[in-house]
Amino acid sequence: MKNGINFSVVEAGSFGDLLSVTEGPAAGKYFLKDKLGLTGMEVSLNQLPEGAEVPFYHTHRENEELYLFIGGCGQFQVDGKIFSVKEGTAVRVKPEGERTLRNNGNGDLYFIVIQAQADSLRQWVMTDGVILDKPVSWAE
Q1: Has residue 12 got a pLDDT over 90?
Q2: Beta carbons within 8 Å of 93's beta carbon, 6+ residues apart
Q3: Which of 97, 135, 136, 137 has the greatest count of CB atoms below 10 A from its CB?
Q4: Contact indicator for 58, 93 with CB cutoff of 8 Å
């Protein structure tokens, strides 16, 4: 792992190897908050095998979640509404949304979950980003 004053790096490995990782209630989930020292969000990398499902509904007290599906296909359920998800689908769920998901496709379902406090975003790329007057160099 490389770390600097303004950055942290961790190698999580291949998404296809996440089933060998067990963090939380099930295998296939790799949390990044503690590993990277994140202070404004939690991020997890996830692999859900073919035919598997999250066996419970859950909500959050303060955090909204963003699910970014990057491979495979399945179904997502929020507040009793069921819809399909696949590579390229993004789902945002408010803290009180009762959610679960399953892989009803062929092959593994891969997704990233970003969790952050709801209503906390005060700036974003266009209002927070600062373009520096400095030429880019890749020399180390």
Answers
A1: no
A2: 64, 65, 67, 78, 99
A3: 97
A4: no
Check pLDDT > 90 for residue 119: no
Give the mean pLDDT of the chain: 90
13 pLDDT more than 60: yes
User: Which amino acid is it at 71?
Assistant: G
Q: Judge contact between 41 and 47, C-beta under 8 A.
A: no
Can you tell me whether residue 125 is helix, strand or coil? helix
Comparing CA positions, the residue from 72, 106, 103, 104 lying closest to residue 89 is 72
The pLDDT, as a whole number, for residue 24 is 65
- Residue 18 CB coordination number (10 Å): 23
Under 8 Å between Cβ of 76 and 39: no
User: Measuring CA to CA, which residue among 115, 118, 136 is closest to residue 44?
Assistant: 115
